[in-house]
Design a protein that fits this description.
binds s-citryldethia Coenzyme A; 18 helices; mainly alpha; 3-stranded antiparallel sheet; 5% strand; 431 residues
Amino acid sequence: MNNKIYKLGDPGGKTSEMILREGSLGPATLDIGTLYRDQSIFTFDPGFMSTASCESKITFIDGEKGVLLYRGYPVEQLAEKSSFIEVAYLLLYGELPSQPQLETFRYSLRRHSMVNEAVLRFFSGFHYDAHPMAMLTAVVGSLSAFYHDSTDIHNPKHREVFAHRIIAKMPTLAAAVYKHGTGQPFVYPKNDLGYCANFLNMLFSVPAEPYRMDPVAAKALDLLFILHADHEQNASTSTVRLAGSSGTNPYAAIAAGIACLWGPAHGGANEAVLNMLKEIGDVKNIDKAIARAKDKNSGFRLMGFGHRVYKNYDPRAKIIRATCHQVLEKLGRDDDPTLELALRLEEIALKDEYFIEKKLYPNVDFYSGIIYRALGIPVHMMTVMFAIARTVGWVAHWQEMISDPHMKIGRPRQLYTGAVKREYVDIGGRK
Ligand code: SDX
């Protein structure tokens, strides 16, 4: 492939040659790695609006066309035909598994679904109303204290054990977070249940009576987890990559990703959407909410709308929206007025010039909370659900980075506009 070359340099000065590297899909990238060495200048791109931080083979997004591919497979096809565990295998290993490979993977995850009892004792230190994301960040980070001496990140086998362990343990820890908040006893995983059914059982079963597993709920959860599994170099995945690039314990790097996901601009938006819809309350208040969202001084945004990459409908939101009615009906929750309110809000917003001009569409967080709530998941647990699924993507990207022989620690520079050098003044001489 003949890569185009861009040249930069003052007349008579040193010329930098920067290669335009083409990928298999999407925009090419200008390799500026030698720019500072040759020209003593940095590029400036806060928020990374035009910056590729790495090369990756995992997930591709076309924001203009609303396309999302996991290892080349359209998310729509995986949502319709695959399962979360099969998608997890695909994201981790790069190919769809054979039946024996899938069974081996499932068996391995089941063998890692329990957590050390000492981890469960950490919960006694939290108030019952501690935010679930605060507890999840803490207990996942604590896993690095249990495996710090058995995780050689340069050993592929150790990396694989870490990957299976953390993917298997996230539902167990997430369910423990929920149980701590309810005051109910923790429920241990049951390895004869599927990944999502096991999680629902750990969430909602109580020792006092048998738990009736609803297959519709498990299937709806599986779909939501597929759609949330990975999304290229989003903020939390980039956090995991940057934290992991220092060679830190991988459980600590995942905890950093959870902390980042919590923000309302990112994964915390699913909780914020439900709170916003509750605040709007009725269709008659939609126009006022949209007016506030358009008013820069209001500090209010339409949560679940807009996206850094998608300037078209988020394909995940399209799938969730399409299944909302069906799932709510099957769960006997089609009386939930929130869905109608959300649909009406979307309809009005998408006709509004402000949203059209700024290409603001519903994103994955706009409808997901409606289904989660229909499954009995409380609002403050919404982002925990996102974290369970996105752990697969975080691990896949961490593995891709750590196994790259050319990996370097991430260390951005800056445009410094602070004080120039000045001399210290004793306190007596200050104004
Ligand atoms: C996720 O990156 C990922 O892939 C993330 C994610 C994943 O799977 O990992 O997809 C998951 O995080 C989805 C996004 C969830 N967040 C929200 O729903 C919060 C509400 N949306 C936003 O705050 C915002 O749209 C972002 C954070 C999602 C994107 O922000 P950008 O790309 O930095 O865009 P911006 O804030 O510069 O907005 C561009 C313009 C601004 O107006 P101007 O200054 O140009 O006049 O659009 C306006 C914004 O004010 N705008 C909104 C808006 N989102 C953007 N105005 C009203 N309501 C909104 N929701």
